[in-house]
Amino acid sequence: MTSPILSVRDLERRYGDFIGCTDISFDVWPGEVVAIVGESGSGKTTLLNCISGRLERSSGSIQYHMRDGRFPDLADLSEAERRFLMRTDWGFVHQNPADGLRMRVSAGANVGERLMAIGDRHYGEIRDTATEWLGRVEIAGDRIDDKPVAFSGGMRQRLQIARNLVTRPRLIFMDEPTGGLDVSVQARVLDLLRGLVSDLGLAVVIVTHDLAVARLLSQRMIVMKNGRIVETGLTDRVLDDPHHPYTQLLVASILES
Amino acid sequence: MTVVIQETGNALLSVRQVAKSFTMHLRDGVILPVVNDVNFELFAGECVVLGGPSGVGKSSILRMVYGNYAIDSGEILIRDRTSGEARDLGAGDPRLVLDLRRDCIGYVSQFLRAVPRVSALDIVAEPLVSRGVDRAVAAEKAAGLLNRLHLPEALFDLPPATFSGGEKQRVNIARGFITDHPILLLDEPTASLDAANRDVVISMIQEKLDAGTAILGIFHDQPVRDAVATRTIDVSAFSARKAA
């Protein structure tokens, strides 16, 4: 059997006396999508930011399986190692594409920048790879020199996805990736994500308040309330046979389509 | 000639002392019992029909065996096709359930859950693709099944969201039948089909049985049941509501 790519134990983040998240333990395995769901203020984004090294934890451990086989705690990595992880082995898809893109450089440069960060220097190859990735996220090749400010919300989000995936990361964090999009655009982005995640065998931790998104993308689900995990399990089991009162409330609140 | 005693050793599925209830926390924690002390086994090449009136827990049993519903107690032992070991799906380990679904248990639900923008052909081919079968090979097999079920070819490349109930159900059936899973769960597969397609499904079921697949199903359709059933389990015997 393989081993987890990410392992979180007894994680806690406090803001003074206030608990952001506490008593959090879970594993993420290669190739699986784990959804963290809960309403605003449940601590899901705090948790995502802690495990992706964007926010300091108060206590607990977060171990990551490096490409070289080591399984260190993120806190024990050097700053250079941590940066390298974030630029290459990991991706982070923000709810607002403007947080994950450079809005005033071209679409091609947004994708190419991540390649240059891992040492690619050949301009023609970088441009070819960027064009290929724009195609994979359904952005026409003739838009490669346009800046994201000229793109629609859905296109920006697809560009952000391309920028993240171009370095062939192994683990992607996503924070409400379809949250800011019109419903009609959401379906396209979701379908794209679903296809890319399964084709590339990515491990994904996705934060969402939308249970339909969780059902579509994830195999496992973590339900959070007041900073704590209240229920975990197979996604369809949690949604079709919810056990915790809060999960039952969430599921009962979905509009039937 | 030796008599083969069907012990749990060669059952593909062994359900032991399973109980299931729902606790409705939004209704003051009222407990809705579903089934108690469910015990049965399923062997290669047989089609076991879950019988009994509506609401007695037939679909719930299928969902438990698929890991879609958690159980309160008991064991659901599935024979792992690779190792030959019995593995307890009822314990609810998500990764085990996913492994067993990929390799051992197929399921045709009553309704297709359509995914936006994914074509009928890709939906049918997906269980093979996820097991590492080449996409083109999987697509060809998917097309063969859809043709057999008389789905117009013009629909193959369209997402089923706009299909009729019968068309969606045929996509669902093709998806469930495309793999060679040793266990197949069928929840009223022919409910919304016309007679011609119903007959196609009957012969598809018979071919599975001939190949040694173990089938557990719910068939309200009498002609289908008569054609495929090798044994019936009366679920009323397990119903937790009868004594209430």
Would you spell out the secondary-structure blueprint of this structure?
The complex is a heterodimer of chains A (257) and B (244).
Chain A lengths: L5 E10 L2 E11 L4 E5 L6 H8 L7 E6 L14 H11 E4 L3 H4 L6 H11 L5 H14 L16 H13 L5 E5 L7 H18 L2 E6 L2 H7 L2 E6 L2 E7 H6 L4 H8 L5
Chain B lengths: L12 E12 L5 E13 L4 E5 L6 H8 L7 E7 L6 E3 L5 H10 L1 E4 L11 H10 L5 H14 L16 H13 L5 E5 L7 H16 L3 E5 L3 H7 L2 E4 L10
Parallel strand pairs in B: 3-8, 3-9, 6-7, 7-8
Antiparallel strand pairs in B: 1-2, 1-4, 4-5
Give the DSSP E fraction of chain A (strand runs of 2 or more residues). Answer: 15-25%
Main sheet overview of chain A: 6 strands, mixed
Structural class of chain A: alpha/beta
Q: Quaternary arrangement of the chains shown?
A: heterodimer
β-strand percent of chain B reads 15-25%
Largest interface: A-B, 23 and 20 residues
The shape of chain B, in one word, is globular
| Order of helical and strand elements of chain A | EEEHEHEHHHHEHEHEEHH
Major sheet characteristics of chain B:
5 strands, parallel
Low-confidence stretches of chain A: none
